[in-house]
Design a protein that fits this description.
mainly alpha; about 140 residues; globular; Globin-like
């Protein structure tokens, strides 16, 4: 499958726009290499499923935030864990620590923050807090 077909249906996201930056920042990492290996094999149905799963997680977190649920509450942490497992299943092994690092980017990089904020003001921080709480929950189990 070529890159045009791979991202069909995701036209609003210009994946090529960030390719050089992504390769410069993470191209040397095992996670990046694994993600490239896995995603090359995905077809249109896979990308549809990946997108739907991601929407379920972030939509659920947005709903919880809108309801006033705590980011450190069980429901939000469970969705954060679902997000981590989503990355782990589809892209690369994602430890709780790596997931926490991703969450830190969600508020540090305005592009990530804007992605979340379009769903609701404060969602980037809510997602970050839920992921941090989930990481702490798993760390405390050890």
């Amino acid at each position: 499958m070529d890159r045009t077909e791979m991202f069909e249906g995701l036209e609003e996201f210009d994946h090529e726009q960030y390719r050089e930056e992504v390769e410069r920042r993470w191209g040397h990492s095992d996670a990046y290499q694994e993600s490239m290996r896995r995603t090359r094999a995905y077809g249109k149905e896979d990308w549809t499923r990946i997108t739907e799963e991601g929407e379920t997680v972030f939509g659920g977190l947005a709903e919880l935030m809108a309801e006033g649920a705590p980011a450190a509450g069980r429901a939000a942490m469970d969705l954060a864990e679902a997000h981590r497992l989503h990355i782990d299943r589809w892209f690369y092994p994602c430890s709780h620590g790596m997931h926490r690092n991703l969450a830190d980017m969600y508020t540090a990089d305005p592009r990530f923050e804007a992605y979340f904020e379009q769903r609701g003001e404060g969602l980037a921080v809510f997602v970050q807090d839920a992921i941090r709480a989930n990481e702490a929950r798993w760390r405390n189990r050890s």
